[in-house]
Design a protein that fits this description.
Blueprint (H helix, E strand, L loop, with lengths): L3 H18 L2 H11 L4 H4 L2 H16 L3 H4 L1 H22 L3 H29 L3 H29 L13 H17 L15 H12 L2 H30 L5 H25 L5 H25 L13 H5 L4 H4 L2 H10 L7 H29 L2 H6 L2 H19 L7
Length: 413
């Protein structure tokens, strides 16, 4: 199959960062147990991941193709590998975790811009682009699932102060180095991603001008709102299970794996559905079902009684079904990303990817902090129910996005 090796490399790169990025929820729970940090204080950890993603994306996106997409991605993987190997030795203070996630954030900005740019280079048409985007994002969620399971295996439920879970970073460091080596041997023609007629300064200002186009402005609002919703669930699901459903810490993190599995299934399935169905009705349907799931699940969770000796073999139904809302949340992000990327020339994909990553990172940070503070001031039921507000705003923004896409006067080329 054409471009098979580089496509496999994209899957592996996303898998590694899926584990690292989405370990935030597990780390937040463990920091509360190990270091007695409050929910409001530990919620800033998301910012130390997402703000570096936003800043690095803004600075790197426009000229990454000229530097070399593969070279940049390999640098990010090696830097993360070094930090992972160091973590078991330096993780005795909150600042060390902030440094880890800042490094992961910068590296992921490069990886995501690279992956989105490469998808455009190896896809022959819009349908193939949307399918590949959905499948890669689905594999990302498989990485989240695997990561939560692996981390939970290292956790000692009988000792809140145990740090044996830090040994997982040795494995993550090895995976990062392996991903860099695999990327190195994968052939890729990057010529279409480079605008030979422009210099680095012109590329940077082209990206800024791109952000002011009405079509792009509406899109980035959609990306921002989606990630705000997504991260509020992903980051705080383990804490919700631990505090509101009163299940053990390891089981709480494993619940995040069920959510990740639902995400993976939803995104992979979307890769097939979108070959037959228009994107807007599909995405709006997903949002409507998601809103209904939130209302039903919060209601069920509030009325459930869970025994102190709860396990996966005797847990009530809500413990299993709550994360299944990920089936309907999952397809939205890769779908709207593909819609916007296939509407612009390939030499603008890196710049557009940078904007996607910037506003996704900002949405993730804000979503986590808002949810954490509502959780602290009220409870988890209120925090998750409040997600209905950005859902409604996202639905409205998607309708406007579709109108702009149909209006030829908003040409961004």
């Amino acid at each position: 199959m054409k471009n098979l090796l580089i496509k496999v490399s994209l899957f592996i790169n996303y898998f590694v960062f899926a584990i690292l990025l989405n370990s935030v929820g597990a780390v937040i729970l463990q920091l509360q147990r190990n270091l007695d940090i409050s929910k409001a204080d530990v919620s800033v950890l998301e910012a130390f991941k997402d703000l570096p993603i936003a800043i690095a994306s803004f600075l790197v996106a426009s000229f990454l193709p000229k530097i070399g997409i593969k070279k940049g991605m390999m640098f990010g993987l090696i830097a993360v590998g070094f930090m992972c190997f160091a973590m078991p030795f330096i993780a005795d203070d909150f600042w060390h975790y902030k440094l880890l996630f800042a490094t992961v954030g910068v590296a992921f900005a490069i990886i995501k811009i690279g992956v989105f740019s490469i998808i455009g280079l190896v896809s022959e048409n819009d349908k193939e682009h949307r399918s590949l985007m959905s499948w890669i994002e689905g594999f990302f969620m498989i990485g989240v699932l695997a990561g939560n399971l692996v981390i939970s295996w290292f956790i000692d439920d009988n000792d809140d102060k145990s740090t044996t879970w830090l040994n997982v970073y040795y494995m993550l460091g090895a995976l990062s180095i392996m991903a860099a080596l695999f990327l190195m041997i994968s052939p890729l023609d990057e010529s279409e991603a480079v605008n030979e007629k422009s210099n680095l300064k012109e590329d940077f200002f082209d990206m800024l001008r791109l952000a002011w186009k009405p079509l792009i402005a509406v899109f980035v609002i959609c990306a921002f709102l989606f990630v705000l919703i997504e991260q509020s669930f992903q980051t705080w699901m383990p804490t919700f299970y631990s505090d509101m459903l009163h299940v053990p810490a390891a089981m709480s993190i494993q619940a995040g794996s069920i959510l990740a599995g639902a995400f993976a299934i939803g995104r992979i399935a979307a890769g097939f559905v979108l070959k037959k169905m228009s994107w807007l009705p599909f995405v709006l349907s997903c949002l409507a079902v998601l809103a209904a799931c939130v209302l039903i699940n919060v209601s069920l969770a509030g009325s459930s009684t869970i025994n102190s000796d709860v396990s996966w073999t005797n847990a009530p139904l809500i413990v299993y079904v709550f994360p299944l809302m990920g089936l309907f949340l999952a397809p939205i992000y890769p779908t709207i990303n593909s819609v916007i990327l296939t509407s612009i020339p390939k030499h603008l994909h890196a710049s557009m990817s940078g904007l996607i990553v910037v506003f996704s990172a900002l949405g993730g940070t804000l979503g986590s902090m808002i949810t954490g503070n509502i959780f602290q001031s009220f409870d988890g039921f209120t925090a998750f129910t409040m997600s209905l507000i950005p859902m409604a705003l996202l639905a409205l923004s998607l309708i406007f996005l579709n109108k702009f896409l149909k209006n030829s006067k908003y040409d961004i080329t």
